[in-house]
């Protein structure tokens, strides 16, 4: 029996102060919802992300269903009602049609905290929550303060620091200077905590189709 289960995910992407995130913002959108950065990096990153991904209503993402879009909008509204700020301020679509109801303009939130549903729940929608951290320890705490642990990313020009943070993050995979959806057939893929168990890909994936049998004897 194939014994690998992939559950939900809320992957963090932590960036240190020496990182040029101008090169990577589009990789950290969609389901990726925790990005650490510094205040002086925030404005250019947001400008590039909004212009590249959703500069016009025609570029509005279509979610899998109206229910999914409604769920995402509810998560965002809950955060806003508890003090979060919508940095993007994109106007929502006004037409009342099913295909429009399933659309959602991208939302970038700041000021998110643990009291908000979007802090813990996966959205599978076009939203990013920003958390500002000052130390590696704080970044690691934020990244690990979730029930999920499928994939994460660390952005830094200091490779030693990046590996140090990557080793401390509770996740099935951590990608340095690359997007969290990175996947290769030769590398095992799978989560920890509520993100599931077991692995596929790599020789570890073959083990999921096998079982190990022990036979002992006495003379």
3D shape: globular
Task: Give start-end ranges of low-pLDDT stretches.
Answer: 1-7, 25-36
Q: Give me the strand/helix succession.
A: EEEHHEHEHEHEHEEH
Helical fraction equals 25-40%
Q: What is the CA-CA span between the terminal residues?
A: 35 Å
Largest sheet: 7 strands, mixed
CATH topology: Aldehyde Dehydrogenase, Chain A, domain 2
Alpha-carbon Rg, integer = 19 Å
Task: Enumerate the strands of the largest sheet in spatial order, edge to edge or round the barrel.
Answer: 4-5-6-3-2-7-8
CATH class: Alpha Beta
What would you call the structural class? alpha/beta
Biased composition (Polar residues): 18-31
Region (Disordered): 1-31
Keywords: Oxidoreductase
Domain Aldehyde dehydrogenase: 54-215
């Amino acid at each position: 029996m194939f014994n690998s289960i992939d559950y939900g995910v809320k992957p963090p992407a932590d960036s240190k102060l020496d990182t040029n995130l101008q090169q990577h913002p589009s990789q950290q959108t969609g389901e990726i919802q925790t990005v650490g950065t510094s205040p002086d990096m925030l404005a250019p990153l947001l400008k590039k992300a909004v212009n590249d991904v959703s500069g016009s209503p025609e570029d509005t993402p279509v979610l899998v269903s109206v229910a999914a879009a409604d769920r995402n909008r509810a998560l965002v509204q809950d955060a806003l009602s508890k003090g979060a700020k919508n940095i993007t301020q994109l106007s929502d679509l006004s037409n009342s049609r099913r295909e429009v109801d399933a659309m959602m303009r991208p939302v970038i939130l700041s000021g998110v905290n643990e009291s908000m549903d979007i802090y813990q729940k996966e959205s599978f929608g076009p939203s990013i929550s920003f958390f500002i951290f000052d130390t590696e320890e704080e970044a690691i705490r934020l990244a690990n303060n979730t029930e999920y642990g499928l994939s994460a990313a660390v952005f830094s020009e200091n490779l030693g620091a990046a590996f140090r943070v990557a080793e401390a993050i509770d996740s099935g995979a951590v990608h340095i200077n690359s997007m969290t959806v990175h996947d290769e057939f030769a590398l095992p893929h799978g989560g920890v905590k509520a993100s599931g168990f077991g692995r596929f890909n790599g020789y570890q994936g073959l083990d999921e189709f096998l079982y190990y049998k022990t036979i002992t004897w006495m003379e």
